[in-house]
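Retry 2 of 3 after timeout on previous attempt. Resubmitting structure tokens to design endpoint.
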């Protein structure tokens, strides 16, 4: 057998090795992230629910999803452990104290569509119908179809 025939198999084995190595790194990073959880930490589940960690078991986590409402989740269901500032910004709408903006964003789009005094009239870009074109020609010539200047 020549090296040319073995080359696709070597490339395939190398690609599989790299993919499994990458997947193992992701699993280790996720496990490390879950190990950083402490009671009182804000988390986001893989389903997108934000909650506070109350208790941590071997395979499960007790989460407080609302004041007085608790739910048991598998540790693997935790998608992200959030720092306090990010959790409060997302859940409670708290703005960071260092960032103050004076930009006012309207609640609706009406301020974007209101006409002002300086607005010029808009051109009519719609296509005229055939009847309207015929009327325009009659007005221009002063004659109807079939009329001639014979006197």
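Retry 2 succeeded. Sequence:
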């Amino acid at each position: 057998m020549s090296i040319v025939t073995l080359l696709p198999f070597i490339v395939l084995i190398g690609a599989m090795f790299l993919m499994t190595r990458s997947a193992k790194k992701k699993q280790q990073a996720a496990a490390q992230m879950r190990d950083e959880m402490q009671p009182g930490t804000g988390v986001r589940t893989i389903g997108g629910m934000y909650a506070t960690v109350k208790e941590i078991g071997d395979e499960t986590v007790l989460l407080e999803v609302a004041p007085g409402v608790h739910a048991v989740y598998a540790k693997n269901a935790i998608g992200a452990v959030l720092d306090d500032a990010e959790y409060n910004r997302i859940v409670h709408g708290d703005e960071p104290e260092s960032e103050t903006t004076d930009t006012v964003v309207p609640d609706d789009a009406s301020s974007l569509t209101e006409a002002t005094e300086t607005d010029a009239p808009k051109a009519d870009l719609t296509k005229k119908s055939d009847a309207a074109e015929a009327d325009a020609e009659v007005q221009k010539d002063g004659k109807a179809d079939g009329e001639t200047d014979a006197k």
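Attempt log closed. DSSP finds four helices and five strands in the chain.
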